[in-house]
Design a protein that fits this description.
With 116 residues, the chain is mainly β. The protein contains no helices and 11 strands.
Length: 116
Amino acid sequence: QVQLVESGGGLVQPGGSLRLSCAASGSIFSINAMGWYRQAPGKQRELVAAITSNGATNYADSVKGRFTISRDNAKDTVRLQMNSLKPADTAVYYCNVLNSLWANFWGQGTQVTVSS
């Protein structure tokens, strides 16, 4: 019943920007945190950014100063604004939700490719 719908991925040149969005719906009960992970070919999945229900944020060191995460609690939606993109940012990005029962839910993933 839980569904996470991601949008905003695509191809962009180095230095460009993309905006990812994720909307949660279904029987999640209550959301404690939402965030984004990414996985590049041959690498482990890593946390990119997360935001809790009270607004606390956490960013990977590699994206600090370039990415901004925000959340609309009323709509159960999380957004990731990605600026100054680098080829190293190329990966599949996954939306993640942590609910109040400490269960995790995942989106299907959206491809972000940074290339000239």
